[in-house]
Design goal:
392 residues; alpha+beta; Beta-lactamase; nine-stranded mixed sheet; three-stranded antiparallel sheet; 14 strands
């Protein structure tokens, strides 16, 4: 019996030693707090803006107030859609926290649910990419960034791993045509997959500089979350400011934002450029209105008009996907929804159904936020906005 106990103790200690060594080896490449977070959280949550560290972006010192003219007709128009019986029921069933309709510069519908109000910060997830697009446009305006410059001009260390990085331009990154490998396929041990790395890893700079790999020559569309943090790092180096500081100085203040905003960061203060921007619904709508007005906020030119046009309107819309027969396009941080004639509608779309939807033809902006979406996917929401805009 003592010999048996001794053998059992030896086996257990051996297993423990192997486990400790394995964890130590794992920690060298994937820090154990990161592994724990990935295993416990298992994916993004709407409240992550309150869990992660975040930058602070101050409200404008000269805020532009909305003309509030709540009009019951806005809800009535939305309820004409065949899939909407009552707007309030739809918003409740889809876990909506904020829903705004702006028409001809007036705030005509504004609803908040789940304990939120007009001062609540709303998570935008991938709508962040549309704000990133504006920052790139501002840096181009300031002459400190060139769209056709190879990214290795700003990130030369990428050449040490693969000289093909020199074929990728700033525009390729913003347009999701970089050729950088990205996979959503889940494989053991899970922590090495692209989605959790870019969302949870405590050192994003090391991820994008050391772990990215070339899959194909630039040109073909592939929606990848490695592109935005590379652009964020390029902005840091070219402007001498963090993206949040640059946004506050060049966009948030002159735009007349009424409230503060923020951008979630890693442990070193590097913004999660692909998903971390958050602001009030009214200020998200203000950004949509800014683009509807071709980059102007009142008498102030904030974003260059030619940049707004370049990113949201072009004569030949490349078809990327079809939803119920409607083709979509993607252009430099915005999804484009074509109409039979005239300029396309365009929108920023984020995880769980976050939207800034702009219809230039019908002078309308829609904002929707929330932690869920019920049975409503991206097509359903954009179809509703598309339908309502032309009937307001």
């Amino acid at each position: 019996m003592p010999l048996l106990r001794s053998r059992i103790r030896f086996v257990l200690l051996s297993i423990l030693a192997i486990l400790i060594v394995a964890l130590g080896v794992l920690h060298l490449r994937y820090p154990l707090p990161y592994v724990y977070t990935v295993c416990v959280d298992q994916g993004p949550d709407y409240d992550d803006i309150h869990q992660f560290p975040a930058s602070s972006i101050a409200a404008s010192r000269s805020p532009v107030e909305w003309t509030v003219s709540i009009d019951p007709r806005a809800a009535q128009v939305l309820e004409l859609h065949p899939d909407v019986d009552e707007l309030g029921v739809l918003l409740d069933e889809t876990e909506t926290t904020a829903f705004l309709v702006i028409h001809e510069g007036r705030l005509e519908e504004e609803r908040y649910l789940l304990g939120h109000d007009r001062h609540s910060l709303q998570n935008s997830f991938s709508v962040s990419k549309s704000f990133l697009s504006a920052l790139v446009g501002l840096a181009v305006r300031d002459g400190i960034l060139e769209l056709d410059a190879p990214i290795t001009h700003y990130l030369p260390e990428l050449l040490d791993r693969d000289d093909r990085f020199a074929e990728i331009t700033v525009e390729h990154l913003l347009d999701m045509r970089s050729g950088i490998r990205y996979s959503k396929k889940v494989e053991f041990p899970f922590v090495n997959q692209d989605d959790p790395l870019i969302y949870y890893f405590p050192d994003l700079e090391s991820v994008v500089l050391e772990r990215t790999a070339i899959d194909s020559p630039p040109g073909d569309f592939l929606y990848t979350n490695y592109n935005p943090p590379l652009l964020g790092l390029i902005l840091r180096r070219s402007t001498g400011l963090t993206p949040s500081e640059y946004l506050e100085q060049e966009l948030w203040q002159p735009m007349g934002a009424g409230g503060p905003a923020g951008w979630t960061t890693d442990d070193h203060g590097v913004e999660r450029m692909e998903s971390g921007f958050h602001a009030t619904a009214r200020d998200l709508a203000r950004f949509g209105q800014l683009y509807l007005d071709r980059g102007r906020a009142g008498d102030r030119a904030v974003v260059p008009e030619d940049w707004v046009i370049h990113t949201t309107d072009f004569p030949e819309l490349p078809e990327l996907e079809k939803y119920n027969g409607r083709s979509w396009g993607y252009r430099l941080g915005w999804w484009l929804v074509p109409r039979p004639e005239g300029p396309a509608d365009f929108c920023g779309i984020g995880h769980f159904g976050q939207f800034i939807y702009v219809s230039p033809q019908h002078n309308a902006v829609f904002v929707r936020n929330g932690p869920g979406r019920g049975d409503w996917g991206d097509y359903d929401w954009t179809a509703l906005f598309y339908f309502a805009a032309e009937r307001l």
